[in-house]
Every structure is written in structure tokens, then in C-alpha cells.
Amino acid sequence: MVSTCINGGYYQEYAFEILKEVIDNYPIDGIFFNMMGYTGPTYAGVDHGICQCENCRKRFKTYSGLDLPKNYDDPAISEYRKFQRETSSELYLKVTDFIREQNPELVIYNYNDVGTSWIASESGADMRPGIDDIYHATGNVKRTLGSYKDRNPVNLIMGFQAIGYRSIMSSPNLLRSWMLQDMLHGAPVGFVVVGTYYHYECREFIPILHDLYGFHRKYEKLFTNVQSRSRIALINGRGSAEAQGMVQLLSEEHIPFDIIHQAQLGTGRPPRDLEEYDLLILNHVTDMSDPFVEMIDGYVENGGKILATGAPSINDENGRALNRIRLRSRHTDKTSLFLSDIFVFIMATPIRIATTTAAKINSILII
Ligand SMILES: [Zn+2]
């Protein structure tokens, strides 16, 4: 298999000719980029490592003064990660600016928030042990809706069972539940079929899909331009399992909530101000800059409440351990509750703990 490096001529120059040819010659509505940026492990799980091409070598040297790391334990790896993020964003912005110059009406669609109009995400089953996250679509849609006032979420429902089983349709109940979550939270509906229907031996979901699209078409108006009135916001850090538990807990208790990317807080990009929320739930948000800590403390001083799981604010924004909780509001125990003080196992069994602590958390949530 051949992978092209984003620092090479194919991406930096020739890709623009291809885009221009397509835009000039075909009546397309939009352009989707799948997995833009540096290549990671293949679908077969093979990791070819860090690109060592001449372009990467030169560019990283100019950027950092360092030699390219050869492996992930190299001391230069954090600088290299930064380099990857910046060069990917730079190229993607160049590409999206170019597309808009050719035709400003085209929708640009990708998994990141740079230069795009729609932010893609996916809900799909897998073959790992354990149950699937039945609220997965809720998390995906709310994360974009709560974090960006100028981006649309498009959460794709992946029909296939897993990457290695792409001609086997997932459980119709699971797919239906995810698609309804997309709809009810205000995202468009999107369903992915890899290959053709012909290749799917199990087509049980197809008539259900027909009904769901029909339902959406009939009531589309009710699902369009929805605005949140939730009084609770989830801020997700490293604890994705905890975030999953909280989404389940709040959904099953019928408590409305928003989700905000930690990186977008305080940037002006989320559609609502922090002050509009009565409670912030910090899901294992370990990495915080000093201004971020101040922002959360200020929110509490102004009457906001926080509920924190895991170990909030123990690292700086780059993940460097500071070994202490820096939130001052940590000590004003009337306005904050730290689940780590009560349940040391919350990270290991988030869903079960979250459910069993519902009674306790409720007393905070409904303040
Ligand atoms: Zn390279």
C-alpha cells in the first residue's frame, strides 16, 4: 500500500489541480475529506511509523531545529505532534480556501473543525467484548452543537458491524436508536453503506431505514434550527468512559444537557455562555491551562456549580503533571462535588457507578 505524505508535492500542489478539475467540470454540492492529515495505522492495524521522507525531515528541522523522531518514545515527539497539528491545519485551510475561491457555495465536510462547514462523526458497532454505547450518537451530535455556533454536526450511522465485517449489517435496534438520536438532537440523518446492498446478506434494517427517512422528511421542520435550553454542560477531558457514563446517566434520568469541547470553552465559538448553565460536569478534565482554571473558578464564584470526576486540573495544558488540583473551587465544598473523593472506582466502571450514584448526583443536578 502506498501512502502520500501531506508535506509532499501530491498534496501541496497536485491536489489543487484535481480539485479544480472536479469543481470546474462536475455539478457537485460539496466535498468530503476522509482522514485528512498524517496517516496512522492502517485498517489492518499495521503502523508504518513516523514518516521519514525528505520533505518531513526538512520541514520539521526548519520548524523546530530538531531531527525527526524515529519512534513514539523519542524526546522530540511532543514537538512533532505539534508540528503535525499545525502543518495539517495549514494545508487544510489552504485547501478549503481554494475550494471557496472556486465556488463559495460548496459544502466542505470533514472530521475536524478547521475550514469545514459540517463536522463529521460516526456511530458504528464494533466487535469488541461488552455492549455497544447506545447513546453514542447523542454524544457525537451534542458535542458539535454545544461547541460551535457556526458548524453543523453530521453524525454518520455506520451500517456495517465492524471494519473487518463490512458486509454484515449491525443490529437494527441499535442503528434505529442512533439514527433517532441524530434526528432528535437536531442533526441531519446520514447512513453509510459500504459496498452495495447486494453484498449485505442481512437487510433487516433497510425497511426501517425507509421509515426513518420518511419520518424525518415529514417532520423536518421540527428538527431544524433547534436551540438548547439545557442548564447543564458536560466538559469532557481525558475520561471518555466517564463522559459516556454521564451521557447515559443524564439521558436515562431525562435531564437535558449540552456537551462542550474543552478546547472551545472561552473561545467564543460555543453558542452559549458558561453563565447560562447552572452546573458544569467536568469529566476527568486533567489538563488545564492557568486561564482555564481561572475561568472555571470564576464561573463558581459567580454562582455556578461544578461536579467533577477523576482528577481535574492536575496537569498543565500540555499534559505535564503538576500533581495537585489547582481549581480553587475544589475547596468550596458547597458548590462543588468531586466524585473521585467518594468513588475511587469511577474510572474503571463508569456506567455502573454513574447509575448507582444517580440519587446523590441528583441533589446537585437539580439545584
Ligand atoms: Zn513525509
Description of the molecule:
- The protein folds into three domains: 9-106, no CATH class; 118-223; 232-365, Flavodoxin domain (Rossmann fold).
- With 367 residues, it is of the alpha/beta class.
- It is globular, with a radius of gyration of 22 Å.
- It has a five-stranded parallel sheet, covered by helices on one side.
- Helix 1 (9-25) runs parallel beside helix 3.
- The protein has helices at 9-25, 54-64, 77-102, 136-147, 172-184, 205-219, 240-252, 290-301, 339-342, 350-356, 358-365, and strands at residues 30-32, 107-110, 118-123, 152-158, 160-162, 165-169, 190-192, 232-236, 258-261, 279-283, 305-309, 336-338.
- It starts with 8 loop residues before the first helix and ends with a helix.
- The model is unreliable at 340-367 (pLDDT under 50).
- Bound molecules: zinc ion (ZN).
SSE map:
Blueprint: H1 9-25, E1 30-32, H2 54-64, H3 77-102, E2 107-110, E3 118-123, H4 136-147, E4 152-158, E5 160-162, E6 165-169, H5 172-184, E7 190-192, H6 205-219, E8 232-236, H7 240-252, E9 258-261, E10 279-283, H8 290-301, E11 305-309, E12 336-338, H9 339-342, H10 350-356, H11 358-365
Parallel strand pairs: 1-2, 2-3, 3-4, 4-7, 8-9, 8-10, 10-11, 11-12
Antiparallel strand pairs: 5-6
This protein binds zinc ion.
Residues 5, 7, 51, 53, 55-56 line the site of zinc ion.
Largest sheet: 5 strands, parallel
Structural class: alpha/beta
The number of E-state strands comes to 12
* CATH-level-4 superfamily name of the largest domain: Flavodoxin domain
What are the low-pLDDT stretches, counting only 5+ consecutive residues below 50?
Answer: 340-367
**Element-level helix/strand string:** HEHHEEHEEEHEHEHEEHEEHHH
* CATH first level of the largest domain: Alpha Beta
Small molecules bound:
zinc ion
Radius of gyration, in Å, reads 22 Å
Strand content: 5-15%
Helix content: 25-40%
CATH-derived topology of the largest domain: Rossmann fold
What is the first-to-last residue Cα distance?
A: 57 Å
Calculate the mean pLDDT score and round it. Answer: 85
**Principal-axis shape:** globular
State the strand order across the main sheet. Answer: 1-2-3-4-7
Number of domains: 3
